[in-house]
Design goal:
mainly alpha, 23 helices, two-stranded antiparallel ribbon, about 500 residues, about 65% helix, about 0% strand
């Protein structure tokens, strides 16, 4: 099925089919939860069967491609396609189960995209009204998408002996250098997922301990599992309508720690925790800037929260640090209705939406390393303006960055800002058409939250609200923004160019 374009579409879609076959068994977990709570289990089994059959059908249509190589050109198509198709099948339980608030396909697809991209934006105004099995499926979709479905595919699919590096490079968020953690790229992917699973189990164990010992009498075991799945994926879905504000401070502090850890490059975390290379974090300039952004954002928000009388003492500091971290890491959890805070806090939070966590983490956004490279690039340009003959290399964490990586960074940031501006403009135009109560700042917030995979925004889409008031067109706009944010725009932009399809 190699077309004249030079793109091996057959190999690309055969891989997509393989991913769908491996995703199908995941529907068994919420089915078990449904049985345990006496809820309807058949929507999950039906969705899993449809997903698996479609994966098998793609295998049959594309023919035998087990040894086919996935080149960088095919990897763009694979990444863009998988992040559309997986949420399509992930939305089936909501539609088949006729779930209140999510029974319409457009709403179900929005929720599934938000789940698998670890965004956390929601159309559900009353989260507690959802069946427990559907709540669990929302949280599990976060977890499956957090580390990356394609990273999982590289870890488990034998056919990716060739081409796995290209896919892993395309999937790991941000311009991170793939450091092999084993003798093959497949072992690297497996070890990343193993670390991801261990962090999740640790989070579950600590939150479950808080629950069973009544250190937080608001936290149930179901809440503990749900929040653990979400926080390690840096997703914003919660099992409560008012998010983490429903729980006591000890739970909030635990989640704060896991947000900070999950926002660090997982390749660095593996070196640190498993290989005991403790210097790997101390030499990481991106990590230092990441922590600095959290500290600066927390301080600015605290000026408003404490100085403005919204909170005082320990509570004011806790809310400020938690909210700055949640937005910067694109988790989207909330311990307070930050939309009601003053302009300094809300503008700070809006700016933090453009930050993102570290490259190679489970977070979205622009990524800290790109900010770091832009700072260094600006400094180099200023130095060369003064000393025109000087050769000033750009270095990050002791490593020289080539001009190609710097150009890619600039192009990505420009595309990101252009996409954000276009998304906000379309939301404002649609609000004017439908008469929605959407101000310019709220439109900026919604576009930034969706594109950055942050989750909640401002106004009616704030931490205690939902995206439900948006029209169907605006819902689709936000859905596309979440998808573009998760694939980091470039794969889609490349696939849409004429040059991509030429031989």
């Amino acid at each position: 099925m190699r077309l004249r374009t030079g793109i091996d579409v057959g190999a690309a879609f055969d891989l997509v089919g393989g991913v769908l076959k491996w995703i199908a068994p995941a529907f068994l977990l919420p089915a078990v939860v449904a049985v345990g709570y006496g809820e309807s289990w058949w929507p999950f089994l039906a969705a899993g069967a449809i997903t698996g059959l479609c994966g098998l059908a793609l295998d049959q249509i594309t023919g035998e491609k087990q040894g086919a190589a996935v080149t960088p050109r095919e990897s763009f198509l694979v990444v863009a396609t998988i992040w559309v198709l997986v949420p399509v099948f992930g939305a089936l339980p909501f539609v088949l189960g006729d779930v209140p608030q999510l029974e319409r396909p457009v709403d179900a697809f929005f929720e599934a995209v938000s789940g698998f991209t670890a965004t956390g934006s929601t159309l559900v105004a009353d989260v507690e009204a959802l069946p427990r099995s559907m709540l669990f499926w929302r949280q599990l979709s976060h977890w499956l998408g957090g580390m990356g479905i394609i990273v999982l595919a590289v870890a488990i699919l034998p056919r990716l002996r060739i081409g796995g590096r290209q896919l892993l490079q395309s999937e790991l968020a941000g311009p991170t250098e793939i450091e092999q953690l084993g003798d093959t790229i497949r072992k690297t992917a497996r070890r990343l997922w193993r670390l991801y699973v261990v962090l999740t189990l640790v989070a579950m164990a600590l939150l479950a301990f808080v629950s069973v010992t009544d250190l937080d009498d608001q936290l149930t075991l179901f809440d503990a599992v749900g929040q653990a799945l979400s926080v390690v994926a840096l997703g914003g879905f919660s099992t409560r309508t008012i998010s983490i504000a429903a729980f006591d401070p000890i739970t909030q502090y635990l989640l704060l720690v896991f947000m900070v850890v999950a926002g660090i490059n997982f390749l660095r975390l593996y070196r640190f925790f498993v290989q005991r290379r403790f210097s790997v974090l101390s030499r990481d300039e991106e990590l230092r800037l990441y922590l600095a952004f959290i500290a600066i954002g927390s301080a600015l928000i605290a000026l408003e929260v404490i100085g403005g009388g919204h909170e005082s003492g320990e509570a004011g500091i806790r809310h400020s640090v938690f909210q700055a971290t949640a937005i910067l890491t694109t988790t989207g959890f909330a311990t307070a209705d930050y939309a009601a805070w003053g302009p300094l806090a809300t503008v700070t939070l809006l700016l933090l939406m453009f930050s993102g966590a570290s490259a190679g983490s489970t977070g979205g956004g622009i990524k800290i390393v790109r900010h770091l490279l832009l700072f260094k690039l600006v400094r180099r340009e200023l130095e060369q303006t003064i000393h025109r003959e000087a050769v000033v290399p750009v270095r990050a964490s002791g490593r020289a960055i080539d001009d190609k990586a710097l150009r890619s960074t600039v192009v990505f940031v420009l595309l990101y800002l252009l996409t954000f501006a276009l998304g906000a403009l379309l939301l404002v135009a649609d609000a004017a058409r439908t008469g929605e109560d959407l101000g310019a700042f709220d439109a900026f917030g919604a576009a930034a939250a969706c594109l950055g995979n942050v989750g909640p925004a401002f106004g009616f889409a704030g931490p205690y609200g939902s995206f439900e008031p948006f029209s169907d067109l605006s819902t689709w706009i936000c859905t596309v923004l979440m998808w573009l944010g998760r694939v980091e725009i470039i794969p889609v932009a490349v696939v849409l160019t004429r040059a991509y399809w030429r031989s």
